[in-house]
Amino acid sequence: MEKSIEVIDASVGYLSERILKDFYFSARRGEIVGIFGPNGSGKTTLLCAINGLARIWKGKILINGIPLTPFTANSLRKKVGYVPQVFEVDPKIPVLTEEVILMGGYGRIGIFHFPSKDDLSFLNKLCELFEISHLLKKPFGHLSGGEQKRTLIARALFQNPEILLLDEIFSYLDWKIKDKIANIIQSIHHEKFLTTLIVSHDLKIIERICDRVLYLENGKVIFDGSKKEFFEKLNDGTF
Questions:
Q1: Among 230, 235, 232, which residue's Cα sits nearest to residue 37?
Q2: Cα(206)–Cα(124) distance, rounded to whole angstroms?
Q3: What is residue 172's predicted lDDT score, i.e. its pLDDT?
Q4: Which of 58, 82, 168, 184 has the fewest Cβ atoms surrounding its Cβ within 10 A?
Q5: Domains and CATH numbers, the chain
């Protein structure tokens, strides 16, 4: 099966700071990869790099076999649904929840085009799944943290991506909500045959829904393998 993501001998970061060094990673379609590690280890930087939002000093990143460059980043980003760890909207700015979700479709629909009936039907389906239909006409900045996260996941999925990048979407949520979101992500991942990367400190979530685990420290890969082997090494004190 072809690799949908390849990071080859890459040094990546922001401005003058290199965070990932001599980095190798790949993921195939259909995989759910959990990314684990301490704060500052490069987890978010990896997601940003794959989404064309970080600087590459050395090496290369390929999305579906196409090199990620300043010239290809915009077109390749249309294939990537990204939920950042932080997405702040000033409560004073009247951006509606519905508008935030529709933003996810701009690359597919176009900024100056109206969504079709099929698009609106898909939006309504996502809102029902994430139980946010009643929030569509409310300002996004007035939603609770959990409501905002569910909205942002719906936004990423409304893009109809091939690759889904999720950064700490389960933090600060109670277990009932975590369980529901995990079920939805698993279901859509398998239905759409996505490549899904999940950054999370929640080992229960990683153990439950991921196929593979990438463990990072100081911008380096410490472990990349099956979740079974990862948890065996974790339990025997290897990490």
A1: 230
A2: 29
A3: 76
A4: 58
A5: 1-79+200-239 (3.40.50.300)
